[in-house]
């Protein structure tokens, strides 16, 4: 069975719209989390962490970078298959997903 050009064009349009939608949603979510009150490094380390420990974690997590730089770094890593490291579990996110994904099927 041969796919006509109208159907192919519709598929390309839908895929393009899906990619643009995902990009916009990721930008909005990233922006909203960036303006939340509090410091992610301070929250991860707890209230008894020293300023030096907080500063070191901020550098490690890239929180000392401007938001646009952090977003682009995250996006490039995501496209490369690197989902980052979970702060709460200290494990690669890809391992966390791989361990839980089969249970969703």
UniProtKB/TrEMBL annotation:
It is a multi-pass membrane protein. Coiled coil: none annotated. Residues 10-104 form the ABC transporter type 1 GsiC-like N-terminal domain. InterPro entries: BPD_transp_1_N (IPR045621). It holds the Pfam family BPD_transp_1_N. Keywords: Cell membrane, Membrane, Transmembrane, Transmembrane helix, Transport. This is Peptide ABC transporter permease. It comes from Pseudomonas syringae pv. actinidiae ICMP 19096.
